[in-house]
Specification:
By secondary structure, the chain is an alpha/beta fold. It has helices at 2-10, 15-50, 56-109, 112-117, 120-162, 164-211, 213-218, 222-274, 280-321, 325-329, 391-398, 421-429, 445-449, 458-467, 471-474, 494-508, 524-538, 550-554, 573-579, 582-591, 595-603; strands at residues 334-335, 353-361, 366-375, 380-385, 406-411, 416-417, 431-434, 512-516, 542-546, 558-563, 566-571. It has 3 domains: 2-325, ABC transporter transmembrane region fold (Up-down Bundle); 335-430 and 510-603, Rossmann fold (3-Layer(aba) Sandwich); 440-501, no CATH class. The protein has a 6-stranded mixed sheet, sandwiched between helices. α1 packs across α9, α5 (120-162) packs antiparallel against α9 (280-321) and α6 packs antiparallel against α8. Bound molecules: adenosine-5'-triphosphate and magnesium ion.
C-alpha cells in the first residue's frame, strides 16, 4: 500500500484526472444508491393503492414519476460512468507513458556495473510486468474500485439510519473479510515473487537466445535451451498451483463467513417487516441495499488481488527507481572532464592522457595494478598484452565506465572528476571510440554512422564513409546508405560492421581517439584502406590503439606492454624490439614459422602479418 501511495505522488501530474474520476465515481455511486430508494418508494405506493389508502390514479401518477426518476438516474449513471471510464483509460495510458519514460531515464543513468550483472531480457520483463500491473490497477481503481468503496460507505450509513444492528453486522462483515484476506496475502505475495523471478530469468535467457540464435543452432542447443525455458515456466505452474489452492481455500472460508452474516441481516429485515417496524417499501429498499453491499464485499477479494499485484509491481518498479547510482557504481576515481576550450588551445605541455598508479578490479581481484603512463598530445600509443590482460579495461576506465580503485586518470591535465553525469558527458565528448565489438543499432547505415552526431549532413557522412572504406560495400547495396542493417547490424559482415564503427568514430571528430581492435575483422586489403583513413584521422590527434596486427603497431610512437595486469615496458617500437620483452618476443615469434611458435603467438592474440 505505501508504494501505491508513492505511485500517486510520483504521478502527481495526473491529479486532475484523479479528481475528475473520483467526482464521476461519486455521481455514479449516488445514482446507484438512488435506485433502492425509488423502488422502495414505488413499492409503498403500490401497497397503499392495493390497500385502498391511495387512489389508483394518484398512485399511478406517482409510480410513473418514480419510474421516470429511475430512468433518469440510470441514464446519468450510464453517461457519467462512461465519461469516468474514458478518463480512466486516458489516465492509465498517461501513467504508463510516465512510468515507462522515467524507468528508461533511470536505466540510462545507471552505471555500467548494473548492466554487468543484469540480463537485458530480465530488465525488459521487469519493466513490462510492473508497469502493466500498476496501470491495470489504476484503471480498475478508477473505473470500479472507487465506486465500490463509496457504495460500501454509503450503505453502512444508510443502514445505520434505518436500523443500527444492520450497520453493525455489515461493519463486521468488511473487517472480517479483509482480515481473512490479509491473512492470505503474505503467503500469496511470496508465491508471486517466486513466480516473477522465474519469469524474469526465463525472459532474460529468452532474449539472449533470440539475439544469438546462430550460436544456439551451431551448437545444437535448441532442445536444452527450450528445456531450461520450460523448467522455469513449469515452476511457475507448480507455484501457481500452491498459490491458487491457498487463495481459493481461504476465499471459500471468507465467503462462508460472509454468507452467514448476510443470512442474519436478511432474517432481521424480514422479521422486522413482519412485526411492522419496516414498511414493505423499506424492506424492498433494504434488501436491495444489502445486495448493493454484497457486491463490494465480494469485490474486495478482487480489489485485494489487484492491489497485491500492483503493490508487488510498483515495489519492483521502485526497487529499480531507488537504486542509488553511486552505490551500484562502487565509486572509484573517474577522469575529469577537461574545461571546454577552443580547438588547438589545449596546453601542449600537459599530457593529453595520464594514468597515475591506477589499480582497478571489476570484482575482488585486481585486473589492473599500478598502471602509470602518459600520452602526449598528438601521440599514438599502442597497448600490447595477452588476451584478457586488461587492454579493453584501460579504455573502459578512460571513458569513465568504471571508477579506478586507486590512483587517478587525467585527461588534458584535469584531475579526478566527480563522476557526475555531466562531467562524464563532457569527458566522453573528448573521446572517439571504436569498440572491440562493433556494437551497431538496428536502423540504416547512415543513422549508425551519425550516431554520435545526429545532425551531420549526408555529405559529411559519405565523406567519413569513404575514409573508413564503408563506401566500397555500400555501393553494392540496393538502398545504399539507407540500407537497414538489422538488430545490432546482424545483416552485415564482421568487417563491414567494423568499418561502420570506424566511420562513426571518425565523424565524431573528437581530440582523443581510442581504437580497440578497430580493424581486427578486416582482410589485408580492406585494412590497408581503413588504415589510410585512420592514419589521416590520427594525424595531430591523441590516439590509444589496441591492435593485434604487429604491422599496425609498428607505426605508433610508443608501445605499452602489459603483463599480469601490470605495465611491463614502455618504449618506441624500435626500443622494445631490442629489449627482449613481450614485444620483442612477439616479433621473434612472428618471424619464426614453426607451429609451436605460432601457437604461442595466438596466446598473445597476435596474428602474423
Ligand atoms: N565487465 C566485466 N566484469 C568482470 N570482469 C571483467 C569484465 N570485463 C572484463 N573482465 C575481466 O577483466 C580482465 C581483462 O579484460 P579485458 O577485456 O580488459 O582484456 P583485454 O586485454 O581487452 O583482452 P582481449 O585482447 O581478449 O580483448 C579479464 O580477465 C576479464 O575476464
Ligand atoms: Mg579487449
Amino acid at each position: 500500500m505505501p508504494t501505491l501511495l508513492r505511485l500517486l505522488r510520483f504521478t502527481r501530474s495526473l491529479s486532475s484526472y484523479y479528481v475528475g474520476i473520483t467526482i464521476a465515481a461519486v455521481i455514479v455511486t449516488g445514482a446507484g444508491l438512488a435506485v433502492p430508494f425509488i423502488t422502495g418508494a414505488a413499492t409503498d405506493q403500490v401497497v397503499s393503492a392495493l390497500n385502498g389508502d391511495t387512489a389508483a390514479d394518484t398512485a399511478i401518477r406517482s409510480v410513473v414519476l418514480l419510474a421516470v426518476g429511475l430512468l433518469a438516474v440510470s441514464l446519468v449513471e450510464a453517461v457519467i460512468g462512461n465519461i469516468g471510464g474514458y478518463w480512466g483509460d486516458v489516465m492509465s495510458a498517461k501513467m504508463r507513458a510516465i512510468l515507462s519514460s522515467r524507468y528508461f531515464d533511470k536505466l540510462l543513468r545507471l552505471p555500467q556495473r548494473y548492466y554487468d550483472r543484469e540480463l537485458t531480457g530480465t530488465i525488459v520483463a521487469r519493466l513490462n510486468r510492473s508497469i502493466t500491473e500498476v496501470t491495470n490497477f489504476m484503471k480498475s481503481f478508477s473505473n470500479t474500485f472507487v465506486t465500490l468503496i463509496l457504495t460500501t460507505v454509503a450503505v453502512l450509513v444508510i443502514s445505520a439510519f434505518y436500523y443500527w444492528p444492520l450497520a453493525i453486522l455489515l461493519a463486521c462483515a468488511y473487517p472480517a473479510y479483509l482480515w481473512l484476506t490479509t491473512l492470505t496475502s503474505k503467503k500469496w505475495q511470496v508465491f508471486e515473487k517466486d513466480k516473477n523471478d522465474h519469469v524474469d530469468l526465463a525472459s532474460g535467457r529468452f532474449s539472449e537466445v533470440v539475439g544469438q540464435m546462430r550460436v544456439v543452432k551451431a551448437f545444437s542447443r535448441e532442445a536444452s535451451e527450450l528445456k531450461n525455458f520450460d523448467r522455469h515456466f513449469d515452476e511457475t505452474v507448480t507455484l501457481t498451483g500452491g498459490q491458487s489452492r491457498h487463495w481459493h481455500v481461504m476465499d471459500a472460508l471468507r465467503q462462508g463467513v460472509l454468507h452467514a452474516i448476510f443470512f442474519t441481516m436478511y432474517l432481521i429485515i424480514f422479521i422486522r417487516t413482519v412485526h411492522g417496524h419496516f414498511t414493505p417499501g423499506e424492506m424492498v429498499m433494504l434488501v436491495q441495499l444489502m445486495a448493493l453491499a454484497r457486491q463490494p464485499v465480494t469485490g474486495l477479494s478482487w480489489v485485494v488481488d489487484m492491489t497485491q499485484r500492483a503493490s508487488a509491481g510498483s515495489r519492483s518498479y521502485f526497487e529499480v527507481m531507488d537504486l542509488d547510482e553511486k552505490m551500484v557504481d562502487g565509486g572509484g576515481s573517474r577522469p575529469h572532464a577537461p574545461a571546454p576550450s577552443a580547438p588547438g588551445a589545449a596546453n601542449v605541455q600537459t599530457p593529453a592522457v595520464a594514468f597515475r598508479d591506477v589499480s582497478f578490479a571489476y570484482d575482488d581481484e585486481d585486473v589492473l595494478s599500478d598502471i602509470s603512463f602518459t600520452v602526449r598530445h598528438g601521440e599514438r600509443i599502442a597497448f600490447v598484452g595477452e588476451s584478457g590482460g586488461g587492454k579493453t579495461t584501460l579504455t573502459n576506465l578512460l571513458l569513465g565506465f568504471y571508477g579506478a580503485r586507486t590512483g587517478s586518470i587525467e585527461v588534458e591535465g584535469a584531475g579526478d572528476g566527480s563522476g557526475s553525469p555531466e562531467a562524464l558527458a563532457l569527458l566522453r565528448e573528448q573521446i572517439g571510440v571504436v569498440f572491440q565489438d562493433a556494437s551497431l543499432f538496428s536502423g540504416n547505415i547512415a543513422e549508425n554512422i551519425a550516431y554520435g552526431r545526429p545532425d551531420a549532413t549526408r555529405e559529411e557522412i559519405e565523406e567519413v564513409a569513404t575514409r573508413a572504406a564503408v563506401d566500397t560495400f555500400v555501393a553494392k547495396l540496393g538502398k545504399g546508405y539507407d540500407t537497414v542493417i538489422g538488430e545490432r547490424g546482424m545483416k552485415l559482415s564482421g568487417g563491414q560492421k567494423q568499418r561502420i564503427a570506424v566511420a562513426r568514430a571518425m565523424l565524431k571528430n573528437a581530440p582523443i581517439l581510442v581504437l580497440d581492435e578497430a580493424t581486427s575483422a578486416l582482410d589485408t586489403k580492406s585494412e590497408r584502406l581503413v588504415q589510410q583513413g585512420l592514419d589521416q584521422l590520427m594525424k595531430d590527434r591523441t590516439s590509444l590503439i589496441i591492435a593485434h596486427r604487429l604491422s599496425t603497431i609498428a607505426e605508433v610512437d610508443r608501445i605499452v606492454t602489459l603483463k599480469d595486469g601490470r605495465i611491463d615496458e614502455i618504449g618506441t617500437p624500435a626500443e622494445l624490439a631490442a629489449s627482449g620483452g613481450i614485444y620483442a618476443q612477439l616479433l621473434a615469434l612472428q618471424a619464426s614459422a614453426t607451429k609451436a611458435d605460432r601457437k604461442k603467438l595466438k596466446a598473445f592474440d597476435v596474428v602474423p602479418h
